[in-house]
Structures are given as structure tokens and as C-alpha cells.
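Note to self: keep these together.
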Amino acid sequence: MEATILELQQKETPLELFLNNLDSEGSRKIYQFELSKFFKSVGKEPEHINSIDILNFKASLSENKPSTKNRKLSIVKSYFSFLVRFKFIEENPADFIKLKSVTTKEPDILNENELQIFLDFPTIRSKAKSKDTYKDWLPKRDQAILALLGIEGLRVSEVCKLNIGNFNESERWLLIHGKGDKTVRMRISKLATSYVGEYLKVRPGVRTKNSPMFIKSGRGCTNSKAAQGDRITVAAIQYLVEQISSQLNFHKHVTPHTLRHTAATLMLEKNVNIKKVQKHLRHSSIQTTARYLHILDNKEAASEVILGGV
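Structure:
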């Protein structure tokens, strides 16, 4: 093993070695970006950086939020710990830095009744408007979008990317184009399948397998490009959710990501195995999924969920 490390040290710079030791491409990009800013701020090579330089860098972060400050300092500490571990330097100049504990606000979560009211709202709103101002297919579209967010936990960007051909109603699956250009076939619930299926029956315009599943409401669908329908945007879905939230007045800040949090929490409340929830939500780490356990009222049920995933 030592020979392998020595070979790597000869071929790569310490920074390259450190970055290549990280788990994901996303982490590598973040660490590289933050460390490049750190080196630019300090203006020295790593082997010449001392504790005073670290203190000055810490002081330069005074305008940052505590969580941002912690992230930047944590990355610097990790890098110098790596250099010490592999004997590029003898002492860690950032070892004395203590990260402040940051209290994070728990995300707002809808309970099951509130989620159902959210899902029902588009049809209630449509009855209050004339067909001239609210196209009759829109409630079905909005309900399908809300179901995929709040029941299945899709990210809003994933909903926007869906094409008609990504949905199989009889076998109840969706082909999701997620983070990092990963494509995953995901089985969905009967309820969500029903919402999507009912919408597609009335969706206007051309409906090929490559047509966008969810389209905007503002374009006509009678000829040429407009017949295909413009793909809905992230901003449009955010606006939809925020408008419904403001009218329902749940005294909660509801966003598309709130609905994803809701989906995760409701799955765990129903004692779905935590590893299955992790896979369904496509979390890279089970710790990300486990953070929803604290919301469960029944601590005993929460323990059962954890033990069931071991």
C-alpha cells in the first residue's frame, strides 16, 4: 500500500491526490472551487501557510452565514489534515480551528391530510373559475405534478424533464432523469399513477413518446411548434406550489422541496424500510434519508424503521 501511495505522490500534486480521494464528482468540484478561493486569499503555497494565515482567512469570512463559514473552514481543515496524514507537511496549521455549532431550522412538512388538501385544490380552484380563464385540462396537470412531488418525492427539475414516453401506466413506473445525468426507472404508487394517467388522457397537443409530459398553459396547441406544447419550467412549478400554499394558508412555507420532504416523511411514518426510501428518493447517503426520522412522533416506530434497514 505504501508503494502505491508513493507512486501516486510522484504522479499527482497533493491537491490532485486530495481531490481524487473524494467520493463524488460533485464533492470534487465544490472542494476544488473553495480551495482555489482559499489559496487566492492567502497567496501562499500550502507548505508555507501558517496559523496566522488561517486566522486571517477566517476573519475574511465574517460576512458569511455561519453554515457557509463552517463549510469553507471544514474544507480547509480537511485538506491540511490530508497533507499531514500523507506526510506532505509536518503540522496542520488549521488544527486549532473550531467549527461553531449551527442550529438548522427543521423543514416544514405537510401531514397526510394537508397533502391531500393540496392535491385536491386544483379541482376546487377550477370550479371557481370560468373555462375562459382556466383551461379544463390544467387541474389534471397540476394534480399530477403535485402528486409526483408530494407522494413520490421527485425533485422539481426531474418533473420538468419528464417526457410522455417516460411513463408506463400499466406497470406503474417512471423513467427519471436525475442528478448527474443519471437515469433511473422508478416504480410509483397507484395513486400517483392514477393522477398522471388521468392528466395524460386530457393533455392537449401532439403526444409522442418524446413530447414533454407537462406543458405550459399559455400556448395554443393547434399548429407547428405550438402543437407540441412548451415544456413547463421549474419557475412555473414553484409559482404553482407557492400560489396554492398562500391560498390554503397552512401557516407553513411550502415549496416544491417541502413536498419532497413530505413524501420522505410520510414513507417513514408508514414504516417503509429506510433503505427502500433512500433508493426511492435517490439519496447517495442513507444519512440524508435518516434525518427525516426525527419528525416521526412515535420514537419506537422510528427505531423499528432503522433496525429494519440493517
